[in-house]
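Reviewer 2 asked us to include a model.

Predict the structure of this chain.
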Amino acid sequence: MNYDPLYHPYSSQRMSVYAKNGMVATSQPLAAQAGLEILKKGGNAIDAAIATAACLTVVEPTSNGIGGDAFALVWTKGELHGLNASGPAPIQISADKVKKAGYETMPEYGWLPVTVPGAPSAWSALSERFGKLPLTEVLRPAIEYAEKGYPISPILGKYWNRAYQIYKENLKEEQYQSWFETFAPDGKAPQIGEIWRSPNHAKTLMSIAETKSNSFYRGEIAEKIDQFSKQYGGYLTIEDLESFKPEWVTPIKVNYRRYDVWEIPPNGHGLVALIALNILKGFEFTEKDTVDTYHKQIEAMKLAFADGQKYITDPRKMKVKVEDLLSDAYAEERRKLIGNNALLPIAGQPPKGGTVYLATADGEGNMVSYIQSNYMGFGSGLVVPGTGIALQNRGHNFSLDPAHDNYLEPGKKTYHTIIPGFLTRNGQPIGPFGVMGGFMQPQGHVQVIMNTIDFQLNPQAALDAPRWQWMEGKVIEVEQQMPTHLVEALARRGHSMKWALGTGGFGRGQIIWRNKHGVLVGGTEPRTDGTIASW
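Predicted model (structure tokens):
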């Protein structure tokens, strides 16, 4: 396979974007332009990533917020760094307390699934270690959009209205009133093209910028969160916030056809994508759109998810080693299970031994793969009064079964769905990539990487290609652009095939590659309001 996918003359409906000095790719045009603005002011790719991320909490609050978590992969000065800014469960919560409240599984809304927010800590940690500009300057675009308002874009308006209808139907208690006051101030979701603003959001962002996030974890904002929690019987306390710190971690990888594919280690489930790729590298794929290609991709993904959903949790609590799950010997054993027909996924025994995504790059060689989320849209349905902070519901992923590896325990981090990806070759950066969207994310990573490496598609084509998604058991959803004859052939192999009603469940991706000339090549998601800002 002596080819370089970065130079293949494939074209799709939208062409990849080329630039030299800097690039920002994300799901909302205003946020991408905010990152570019910071680059032009002398900031680097890390500053641009922070600016874009903060801006997304304002201009795409349907997918993330100040009260969510974040992960990042940062390439700078010849090295890849990982940041895990996901928060743990409160110290005072327990599975027994949740069960006594009448739940057999973790609820979606309210205080019980709320975990410590990590996103503000990610901004300050990235800025302090790698940034060039003051955080007050970097967060200025987000603050201005919150203060002055901005027009609602099409996909944003669609999901905002959908969330409003769900919340209106299900969240009738007093504790949810602040969400409606913040995100539906006129008794409805803001409409496409309508101006929405959030002065409280602006004040919170300014406080975070001025204190380098200290006010969020140890100051006035922490006190407001603590007070709100106590008022409605929540378990999150100021002590939980004060004790939290983001973690710099060593990224994990597999070598896939001479490319190193990198992910953040658990508690994130980037490990699932790597397990699948490790299985798939034992096969040869000469054509993309064949039943055999899709069948093997799907079967490998199911096996990887079976392992991931069994073993991934807080790394301090994992019962197996990541290196064992990624060993070639284990991949070979799992690969042997793939035959001609669909199987039900079952976790193996290795040898002992939901979101917004953005990518940035600058002319100095820095590149960032960054993702943050409240989970399941707006999150818990709780907004801290007077702050604009929508709190995440990441704890919904915890299990209440004591035998489960991801069992809810005080201070424990849960299985996490948001994952940034990065690609290198021979120790040199190719660039950041990601596909946000809950449990679609590792599936999107595998499909994008194979589209790039196996099938030689440029960044835009790799994102435009129709996607499939394993749902459960043998159930596979596919986009309507998927060729009918392939869907029917997969059904004959035992897969329970379903056409998706829309594209919302198939993730939203971004890619920036750097070619051998030092030129940046970007692709952005056609399934959302995605855009690339560059110069």
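The first strand starts at residue 17 and ends at 19. The chain is about 35% helix and 20% strand. We have added this to the supplementary material.
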